[in-house]
Amino acid sequence: MALIVQKYGGSSVADADSIKRVARRIIETKNAGNEVAVVVSAMGDTTDDLIDQALSIDSQPPAREMDMLMTAGERISMSLLAMAIHAAGSHAYSFTGSQAGFMTDAQFGAAHIKAVNPARVRHALDTGSVAIVAGFQGRSEKGDATTLGRGGSDTSAVALAVALGADVCEIYTDVDGVFTADPRIVPTARRIPAIGYEEILEMASCGSKVLALRCVEYAQRFKMPLHVRSSFSHRRGTVIVPDGVNPATLPNL
After folding, report:
1. DSSP-assigned beta bridge partners for residue 134
2. Predicted pLDDT of residue 208
3. Closest CA relative to residue 160, chosen from 231, 234, 103
4. How many CA atoms lie within 13 A of 26 on its CB side?
5. How far is residue 150's CA from residue 159's CA, in Å, rounded to a whole number?
6. Strands 145-147 and 137-139
7. In Å, how far from its chain's centre is CA 189?
8. Is the pLDDT confidence value at 35 over 70?
9. Could you tell me if 134 and 99 are in contact, meaning their C-beta atoms sit under 8 angstroms apart?
10. Whole-number Å distance between alpha carbons of 80 and 105
11. Which of 133, 137, 160, 195 is the most exposed place for a label (fewest CB within 10 A)?
12. What is the DSSP string of 174-194?
């Protein structure tokens, strides 16, 4: 049995049909004999819509209140995904970042993770359920809601995988892995089957948007294998592994 953390971005959970498709994929992974914890982003353009609403009310909203508002998007997607898993005949528990044990500093809008204590997530897995965690968010020492900034759900997923001792962290997006260029713009771009941390960090620092820079740095620090793949297909995607690790040994390839 492997422990797999899966992260689904906003395009993967953009609407009800997409959420149902993701639920089926999660159940397939679980039924293959794996423990599955999931981190989700807000649906589609929800975060941008919330920002627009805030700015229409206050052109300079308080940072604390913005973070309180921003956490709403992931709460919606996590609970709907849990419902979709229930409707498909399996069982799931959803958790906010705070409930999942994400402790951060108090830098609203760009908080850094200080510790992850996923006791409730671990308990849900131990009961045979899927654990679904709202990405991009945590809680400060004072108990305030905080957000991790753009790409924060990727970092949430890697941090949860490290805290749980997962075998791999799968990052699901709308492209089939890491490519030599954006395949939506350059049709001749080639998929990279496997790559090291240093190479993907260089790509991220040069503007590649497949993975957030902090996510890769966190994975490299703790030697957490990453698997970038599309939630819209079952192609192999791209694996990002520490030196000396055979990519073929990763689960769910």
Report:
1. 40
2. 67
3. 103
4. 35
5. 16
6. antiparallel
7. 25
8. yes
9. no
10. 29
11. 195
12. SSSS-BSS-TTT-TT--B-SE
Q: Decide if 108 contacts 67 (C-beta within 8 A).
A: yes
- Contact assessment for residue 135 and residue 157, using Cβ atoms and an 8 Å cutoff: yes
Distance, C-alpha 80 to centroid of its chain? 16
Contact indicator for 132, 81 with CB cutoff of 8 Å: yes
Q: Where are the domains of the chain?
A: 2-249
Angle value at C-alpha 176, between 116 and 253, nearest 5 degrees = 65
Q: How confident is the model at residue 207 (pLDDT cuts 50, 70, 90)?
A: low
Nearest to 97 by CA among 122, 123, 78: 78
In CATH, the number for domain 2-249 is 3.40.1160.10
Q: Which residue carries 């939506």 as its tokens?
A: 184
pLDDT digits (tens, 9 = 90+) for 40-78: 999 999 999 999 999 999 999 999 999 999 999 999 999
**Beta-strand pair 35-40/130-134:** parallel
Tokens in use for 30?
Answer: 């679980």
Picking from 127-131, 174-178, 192-196, 220-224, which range would have the lowest pLDDT averaged per residue? 174-178
Q: Which residue has the higher pLDDT, 251 or 6?
A: 6
Residue type, 203: M
On the question of pLDDT at 82 being above 90, the answer is yes
Q: What is the pLDDT of residue 247?
A: 83
Residue 81, exposed/middle/buried by CB under 10 A (0-12, 13-18, 19+)? buried
- CA 175 and chain centroid, separation: 15
Structure token pair of residue 113: 């993770």
Torsion of the alpha carbons at 241, 245, 246 and 250, rounded to the nearest 10: -60
Q: What are phi and psi of 205, to 5 degrees?
A: -70, -20
Mean pLDDT of 112-140: 97
